[in-house]
Amino acid sequence: MDPRQPQSLPAELRTERLLLRCWRPQDRIAFARMNADPRVMEFFPAVQSREESDAVADRIEAHFQQHGFGLWAVEIPGITPFAGFIGLTHTRFETHFTPTVEIGWRLAADHWNRGYATEGARAALDFGYTTLGLNEIVSFTVPTNLRSRRVMEKIGMMHCPDDDFDHPLVPEGHRLRRHVLYRLGR
Ligand SMILES: CC(C)(COP(=O)(O)OP(=O)(O)OC[C@H]1O[C@@H](n2cnc3c(N)ncnc32)[C@H](O)[C@@H]1OP(=O)(O)O)[C@@H](O)C(=O)NCCC(=O)NCCS
């Protein structure tokens, strides 16, 4: 699905206020801190231990190795070296809209509501359409994650209720199994 060789892709993206960059070993400390914060993990099954957080970082770095893009580490120059991640990934489960590339974001709560997710997401979308040549990018979350849905709406994604789905990696009967899907074509 990747039309370009990983090594030919730009390593980082810049926006007016953000640097979306490759991960550094020291990012893992701040990443674990945010993944242990109940506010950040409200719409995930549980807060994460240091080991679980590192496993997510390992998976993110492996995606960069394989594809040359992924969930970039977000630096806010002059404010913080690491605020979370924003970026694109190949969806890692099978359902009616896969295979596809999804856009995602997770920021430390101290940096919410300043438009950072929207700003970074716009740069990631542009990268997906212009550099990767994708025709469509999706995003999904639980219906009650209004902050994330608001970001999806602000970047122009469309929700079609017919697309709503049960997340295959969430156990049957779990309160977080049902998801809404947003799509945006090139
Ligand atoms: C989702 C997340 C990345 C948004 O980051 P952010 O930088 O605060 O996003 P933005 O500032 O660009 O936009 C947030 C929007 O949500 C709105 N918002 C904030 N709290 C809200 C609430 N409780 N209900 C509805 N909308 C809300 C803001 O007002 C803003 O919209 P506006 O610009 O129209 O006013 C951040 O909240 C986060 O990391 N959450 C935890 C992890 C997560 O849920 N990730 C997504 C998993 S799918």
Helix and strand run: EEHHEEEHEHEEE
Note the total helix count: 4
Main sheet record: 5 strands, antiparallel
The amount of beta strand, in percent, is: 25-35%
Could you name the ranges where pLDDT drops below 50 across 5 or more consecutive residues? none
The general outline is globular
Question: What small molecules does this complex bind?
Answer: coenzyme A
Helical amount among residues, as a percent range? 25-40%
Structure class: alpha+beta
Query: What Rg is obtained from the alpha carbons, in whole angstroms?
Result: 16 Å
Distance N terminus to C terminus? Answer: 16 Å
Largest sheet, spatial ordering of strands: 1-2-3-4-5
Quick one: how many beta strands?
Answer: 9
Mean pLDDT: 96
Note the main attributes of this structure.
binds coenzyme A, 25% strand, 9 strands, single chain, five-stranded antiparallel beta sheet, 186 residues, alpha+beta
Give a written overview of the molecule.
By secondary structure, this protein is of the alpha+beta class. The chain contains four helices and nine strands, in the order E-E-H-H-E-E-E-H-E-H-E-E-E. Helix 1 (27-35) crosses helix 2. It is globular. The chain starts with 12 loop residues before the first strand and ends with a strand. It binds coenzyme A. Coenzyme A binds next to strand 5, helix 3 and helix 4. Coenzyme A (COA) is lined by residues 40, 43, 105-107, 112-118, 141, 145-148, 150-151.
